[in-house]
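Structure in, sequence out. Go:
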């Protein structure tokens, strides 16, 4: 079965091509070009709309009233919401919970059998208490070697990302073990200094979890984790561009300081694509009003109600990025954070047939993943 997309304005990290065509065979892009297109079993005339790679979300907790903590059916229901907004490949993020609960969740994710799920992201439990954000204090712990080994065993290879506070005892050793096991290690929910963060990167950490949120900010005498990440070209930096977590002018600073290294993430909780009201994030109660999620009775932000198409629009309109740079931040850059840049993040031969169609106001009008229309 082959499908031809024709008359597209292609836009990916490699730039824009007009009158673009793309031939898909099975779950893979077989060929691309512009002008006269080859024949195919089925043709989709996209009539001059933008065709961009499917979005990759490195950090997400749920949507549509469903949380990833609540088992396979809830994971599927939440991902269905994000897929309608252009996210074709996802990590399933888990908040801090007792070790046994996390192990069960990891085992369940390993057995999902969904090729669009790239694996699990353990956001907790190895977080620094004063920067715990919306993670339950009772479930935070130090990354003891035995606990790290147990989690890796339970994950059966499905653990793709983990957030660690490098200022915790044993953190650097844990980072080395996890990197050796093929896990992308992120620095986050931390009180780490500039120097401690540099040590984490030297130990193999390659990502910064939601930059600026749940970590010391930039001070002129204490540059902190964000400047350490800006300076290290191996490191990719997550940003939650929902207009609430980071000011658009600070987001612009980040894109200028780390070109090609900002990955927009949703950090979405169950209220994304749903209504305001009362929700759970792991074991904690959350209230959502006007799309802003906080731990009930506090001002502590508890995830977002963002989808990646919305983040893309904000990157263009609020931050003033070029459409190319904005698309890169939801496609190739997050794929690179997982070492998947040879298969995901571009509309090119040999890449996964994941594509999003967008109208001239950057609204999603069609989504395909692994060659199938969603
Ligand atoms: Zn977080």
């Amino acid at each position: 079965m082959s499908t031809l997309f024709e008359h597209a304005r292609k836009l990916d990290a490699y730039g824009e091509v007009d009158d673009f065509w793309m031939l898909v065979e099975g779950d893979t892009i077989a060929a691309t070009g512009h002008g006269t297109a080859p024949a195919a079993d089925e043709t989709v005339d996209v009539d001059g709309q933008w065709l961009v790679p499917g979005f990759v979300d490195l950090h997400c907790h749920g949507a549509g009233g469903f949380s990833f903590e609540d088992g396979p059916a809830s994971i599927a229901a939440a991902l269905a919401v994000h897929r309608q907004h252009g996210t074709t490949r996802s990590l399933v993020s888990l908040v801090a919970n007792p070790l046994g609960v996390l192990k069960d969740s990891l085992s369940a994710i390993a057995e999902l059998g969904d090729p669009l799920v790239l694996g699990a992201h353990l956001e907790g439990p190895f977080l620094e208490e004063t920067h715990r954000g919306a993670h339950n204090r009772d479930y935070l712990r130090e990354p003891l070697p035995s606990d790290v080994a147990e989690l890796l065993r339970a994950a059966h290879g499905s653990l793709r990302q983990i957030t660690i506070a490098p200022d915790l005892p044993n953190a650097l050793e844990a980072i080395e073990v996890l990197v050796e096991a093929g896990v992308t290690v992120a620095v986050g929910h931390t009180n780490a200094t500039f120097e401690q963060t540099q040590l984490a990167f030297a130990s193999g950490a390659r990502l910064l979890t939601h930059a600026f949120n749940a970590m010391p900010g930039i001070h002129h005498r204490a540059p902190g984790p964000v400047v350490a990440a800006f300076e290290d070209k191996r490191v990719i930096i997550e940003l939650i561009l929902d207009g609430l977590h980071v000011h658009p002018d600070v987001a612009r600073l980040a894109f200028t300081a780390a070109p090609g290294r900002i990955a927009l993430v949703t950090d979405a909780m169950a209220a994304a694509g749903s209504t305001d009201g009362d929700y759970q994030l792991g074991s904690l109660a959350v209230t959502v009003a006007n799309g802003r999620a906080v731990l009930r009775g506090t001002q502590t932000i508890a995830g977002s109600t963002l989808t990646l198409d919305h983040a893309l629009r904000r990157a263009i309109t609020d931050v003033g990025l070029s459409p190319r740079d904005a698309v890169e931040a939801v496609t190739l850059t997050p794929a690179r954070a997982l070492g998947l840049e040879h298969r995901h993040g571009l509309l090119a031969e040999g890449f996964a047939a994941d594509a999003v169609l967008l109208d001239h106001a950057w609204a999603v009008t069609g989504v395909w993943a692994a060659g199938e229309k969603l």
